[in-house]
Amino acid sequence: MELILKYFNQFTPQQINQFEQLKDLYAHWNQQINVISRKDIDLLYERHVLHSLGISKVINFKDGSEILDVGTGGGFPGIPLAIAYPNCKFLLVDSIGKKIKVVNEIANALQLKNVTAIHARAEDVKEKFDFIVSRAVTEFPVFYNWVKNKIKKENNNKLNNGILYLKGGDLEKEFGHYFAKSVFFNLYDYFPLEFFETKKVVYFKMN
User: Fold this and answer.
1) Helices 97-109 and 13-32, axial angle in degrees (round to 10)
2) How far apart are alpha carbons 24 and 120 in whole angstroms?
3) Which stretches of the chain score pLDDT less than 70?
4) What is the Cα–Cα distance from 73 to 35, expressed in whole angstroms?
5) Quick one: which H or E segment has residue 167?
6) Which one of 38, 50, 147, 160 has the largest count of C-beta atoms within 10 Å of its C-beta?
7) Which of 65, 55, 105, 100 is nearest to 86 (CA)?
8) Which one, of 41, 45, 31, 60, lies nearest residue 130 by Cα?
9) How far is residue 18's CA from residue 188's CA, in Å, rounded to a whole number?
10) Which residues are CB-neighbours of 204 under 8 A, at least 6 positions away?
11) DSSP per position, 100-165
12) How do strand 162-168 and strand 199-205 relate by DSSP bridges?
């Protein structure tokens, strides 16, 4: 938890309390339904919470923004972002039902009123959103085709509506012709820790 407070000083006592609860909640649920690798539980705040919050170093979502988290797994990046932005609405989807069960249990325990989590594929979601976030669920061209029709036309944030994708490694080959249209933010610039050396937030403007 000290790691979060080192890089973020804007959270209220309630938000800090919610972040503090994450360790015990994930430790409890992970024993029943494996959503995080065993070795990562001890590194939850660095590898999952701080990594998710990297998106908030790139954009400060305006109140009322609607965000879709595709392939949320155990709730990343959606749960940490929902704590950070209580006045935004988050829809978290995953194709694996037992992972969504964990997400719902954790969201309920934290009393996150701004989170809805459903067992669904991205293609099945009919609503439109200001931003779509995800953490390396598949190669970007495949992901783009899943979500390309789910972005609102009207922009309300400083960044135009689009995709914010957490990804690591050498991305030029993977992104192909999307590479030139993408903006890459190195998370190591914000969090100078070994884990983040190759990690990026990729922003792809959709309108």
Assistant:
1) 140
2) 27
3) none
4) 7
5) strand 162-168
6) 50
7) 65
8) 60
9) 25
10) 140, 144, 162, 163, 165, 178, 181, 182, 183
11) HHHHHHHHHHTT-TTEEEEE--GGG----BSEEEEES-S-HHHHHHHHTT-B-SS--SSSPSEEEE
12) antiparallel
pLDDT at 72 (0 to 100): 97
Instruction: Report DSSP state, residue 80.
Output: H
**Which pLDDT score is estimated for 1?**
85
As a residue count, the chain comes to 207
Q: How far is CA 207 from CA 68, 164, 181, in A?
A: 17, 14, 12
What is the rounded CA–CA span in Å between residue 15 and residue 206?
31
Handedness of CA 55, 58, 186, 166 (dihedral sign): positive
Q: How many CA atoms lie within 13 A of 198 on its CB side?
A: 5
Cβ atoms of 114 and 82 closer than 8 Å? yes
| pLDDT value at residue 120 | 96
Instruction: Specify the pLDDT at position 207.
Output: 76
Closest by CA to 188, choosing from 7, 10, 36, is: 7
Which CATH number does the domain 2-205 belong to among 3.50.50.60, 3.40.50.150, 3.30.530.20, 3.40.50.2020?
Answer: 3.40.50.150
| pLDDT (0 to 100) of residue 19 | 98
